[in-house]
Structure to design on (94 residues):
C-alpha cells in the first residue's frame, strides 16, 4: 500500500509552488493516497495481462499452398473470364 506523508505532501507543494492551507492537508492526503492506491491496483491487474499477451507474440505458421478448384466460387460471379472474376474498371490510365 502506497501512502504519502504530510511532510512529503508539503515538500511536493513547495517544489510545485502550490500554496496549501492547513485545513486542506488532511483532505489532500486522503485523496492523493486514494489515487496512488488505485494506480497501484491497476498496475497489479495489468501485469498478468501483459505477461499473457507476451506469450502469444511472434506465433508463426508455415504458409501452405493448397490447390483448390475455383469453379464453385466463380459460379456465383456475375461475370467471369477463364479462372478470374471480371470487375468494372476502377482506375483509368489517362
Amino acid at each position: 500500500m502506497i501512502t504519502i506523508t504530510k511532510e512529503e505532501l508539503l515538500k511536493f507543494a513547495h517544489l510545485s509552488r502550490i500554496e496549501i492551507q492547513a485545513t486542506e492537508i488532511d483532505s489532500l492526503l486522503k485523496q492523493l493516497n486514494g489515487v496512488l492506491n488505485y494506480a497501484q491496483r491497476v498496475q497489479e491487474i495489468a501485469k498478468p495481462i501483459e505477461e499473457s499477451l507476451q506469450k502469444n507474440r511472434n506465433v508463426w505458421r508455415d504458409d501452405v499452398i493448397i490447390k483448390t478448384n475455383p469453379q464453385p466460387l466463380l459460379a456465383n460471379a456475375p461475370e467471369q473470364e477463364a479462372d478470374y472474376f471480371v470487375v468494372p474498371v476502377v482506375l483509368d490510365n489517362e
